[in-house]
Amino acid sequence: MKPLSRLLATALLVAIVCACGRHEAPPPNIVLVSVDTLRGDALRAYDPAAQPLPAIDALAARSARFTNALSAAAWTLPSHASLLTGVYPHRHGAIHRDATLARGVPTLAGLLARRGYETVAFTDGGFLDTSYGFGRGFMRYDDRLSRGVPPLPDIPNSGKASPEGTSDLFARADAFLAQRRSDAPLFLFVHTYAVHDYYKAHSWATPPPGAPTAPDATHNLACLVGEAQCTAREWEALAGYYRAELRRIDGAVGRLLAATRAALDDRPTYIVLLSDHGEGLDPVAGATHHGGALRRDLLAVPLLVSGPGVEPAAIATPVSLVDVAPTLVALAGAEGASFDGRSLAPLLSGGMGGRLASLALAGRTLQAEEHYYWWRGGRRRAARDVASRAISVGVLHGDWWYTRAPHRELAERLPIASSGRTAAPPLPVLRRAAKPLLRAAAVETEPHAESAELEATLTALGYAGGGGGGEP
User: Can you tell me the distance from the alpha carbon of 166 to that of 169, in angstroms, rounded to the nearest whole number?
Assistant: First the structure.
């Protein structure tokens, strides 16, 4: 044997012996919290002028904070499907109200279950209903309309929505943690529409100055989707109700984190807090509500990750919600899948490794898709017949976020440092980057059967009707 070959063989033998002598660290717990419709700049970690939210602010202070995190879609169904599969909408197929998650796409919960995780979810239902396929891989998937899910003790209405229309979602999750006795690592997914419902002007939200004495939820929603006109004072009131819902949810998040610490102190735990999309409250700029528009400010979401070995810091590297699943799979030591996203785990520890990982991720082209909603004349509409190809797309190329929609395009620069900056957007380059996405056909999925109960839930969330908007 040649000396070099002998040396390599010896090094390999030593590596094998050392690996056999090491004990694999137990998988960490993972708690993933999705606050639907939470804008990134609604948190002080992203905008120092934002209102204080003690629990979330404290979590952010001990987290890696991704300051350029973007959603893959601008409404709940396709965005959460991308979050929980790590692939873009055209690959998972849940692109419109009448489609389900493609069966061939692996889910985050399924991958972690094969690693030995206890997989549990508490959601507010709606587009997170089990009928869309989100329950795959979860041992307990507890949503508003779940069938066969055993009730938890001491929870009003056995964990269903209260008569006032409010959710005791966090109470369900807290009760589960308090009574949990399993020794398996836990993957807990919690999703809430509490902030999404701000326009309902709930009784607990003190009316902001100038708000109507008798708020009309139907009128508020009509203003958001462009079917009615709101005065400037009414828009200020809507922003005030939005902030009020954030204050309320902050208390619930604080209680969940306390319950997590009490129940999961047996092993390291990662906490991830994020949103599926933002919210537009700026009619002057033409950004209202969500769905249909792929503007950067409507796709910019908070992404906070805390846990063992995580260096609290702001990370400017552009990332996507499709990166979350591969990141959590990597942290769990689980088997991966054919993700569109990339693991962000190397970025979490900072140092030289984090800087090298940031450089490796910096040149990616991120994207977003819209197949169902579209805007015309300041009104949001839903397509009657959904084509397999996207109505509009957004791509990140360099530090430019480019949106291509019917009859219009928009180029916006991300607030990140880059070389070769130009005064004007390189539109020919951006158009070429978007073209393959416009041509990508969505995978076919099984049709979604919508129950009367689910239709009522979606209507209450502001998604009335299944279409009727014509074509763009």
Answer: 9
Q: Is residue 111 part of a domain?
A: yes
Residue 345, φ and ψ in degrees, nearest 5: -55, -40
pTM for this structure? 0.90
* Per-residue model confidence (pLDDT) at position 282: 87
Question: For residue 354, what are the domain limits?
Answer: 26-362+447-460
pLDDT higher than 60, residue 363: yes
Indicate whether 123 belongs to any domain.
yes
What pLDDT score does 8 carry? 38
- Longest Cα separation, the chain: 89
| CATH code of the domain in which 206 resides | 3.40.720.10
Q: Tell me, what amino acid is at 385?
A: D
In a domain, 185, yes or no: yes
Cα dihedral sign, 400-401-405-410: negative
Q: Which of 40, 108, 87, 82 is CA-nearest to residue 273?
A: 40
Please compute the mean of the pLDDT values over residues 135-147 and round it to a whole number: 82
Where b means 16+ CB within 10 Å and e means fewer, 133-146 reads bbbbbbebbbbbbb
Q: d(Cα 156, Cα 164) in Å, to the nearest integer? A: 12
Alpha carbons 126 and 86: distance in angstroms, whole number? 21
Single out the residue of 271, 435, 310, 445 nearest to residue 365, CA to CA.
435
The type of residue at 248 is R
- C-alpha 178/C-alpha 184 separation (Å) is 15
In a domain, 310, yes or no: yes
Q: What is the pLDDT of residue 423?
A: 75
Q: How many domains does the chain have?
A: 1
Q: Within 264-374, where are the H helices?
A: 296-299, 324-332, 345-348, 351-361
| pLDDT tens per residue across span 287-316 | 889 988 899 989 999 999 999 999 999 999
CA distance 54 to 64: 17
Share of the chain above pLDDT 90, in %: 58
DSSP H or E run through 111:
helix 108-114
